[in-house]
Amino acid sequence: MSTLPKVAWIGLGIMGSPMSENLVKAGYDVTGHTLEREKLDRLTAAGGTAAASVAEAVRDADVIVTMVPASPQVEAVAYGPDGILENARRGALLIDMSSITPQTSVDLAAAAKEKGIRVLDAPVSGGEAGAIEAVLSIMVGGDQADFDEAKPLFEALGKTIVRCGPHGSGQTVKAANQLIVAVNIQACAEAVVFLEKSGVDLAAALDVLGGGLAGSTVLARKKDNFLKRDFTPGFRIDLHHKDMGIVTDAARNVGAALPVGAVVAQLVASLRAQGDGGLDHSALLRAVERLSGARV
Length: 296
Fold this sequence. Notes:
The chain starts with 6 loop residues before the first strand and ends with a helix. With about 300 residues, the chain is an alpha/beta fold. The radius of gyration is 20 Å and the shape is globular. The chain contains 14 helices and nine strands. The strands form two sheets. Strands 3-2-1-4-5-6 form a six-stranded parallel β-sheet, sandwiched between helices. The chain has a three-stranded mixed β-sheet with strand order 7-8-9. About 55% of the residues lie in helices and about 15% in strands.
């Protein structure tokens, strides 16, 4: 009989499916719920259990993990008569790994405390590849004791696991992460168009750039996307648009200027407005190509 906590997993999308499967591989009893039948079938094929509702999934869980697109979805699964807070047992640990506003995390922790439920905000970075490979960076906000309890579970999902402070801190760090990633992708995209228009061997150029100070995880992960113009979503423009809204709003609230970030946020928004919201965020290359009169 396993001594590991029973886990309820809510949200089995691009990130949630491989993450939940990694918990199954690590020996956890995982019961999942999502809206798509095929995602539930995928979880059961991996050794997990499907639940027909949020309430059913969380009822006997020691740990509840949510991995949904944005603040409205977190609130939808957390609150209300059929939500997590009304159906989870007292003493359960709710770990929200979605990328949402810091204030939503703070409010959720306060509401959950009234129900005797502990909360960590624990957004991740690393994209679909990082989720599959269990090498995500996990930035956590919440109480130290709860973080310590959750650490073994996090270690089945990622490699860099850091408590960043009280409730909401994980989301604040994730917002900063998304700012850096977006600006980095934009810089890479501009470099690709510049290199191609200059007649340089793009593959060779990206190899040598990756080995110098210009090298980054973004360049390493997205190089093939640029070379092949393969924008199959690992992290969609729609979601990065949401995240850029989070960071620009949060920065405004604390009085931090984001001059470059604000420009990139508008470029992400324009790409989405042109119908590319469902593509991978490396499709920022398409926006630079349009501006440069190059191929799209």
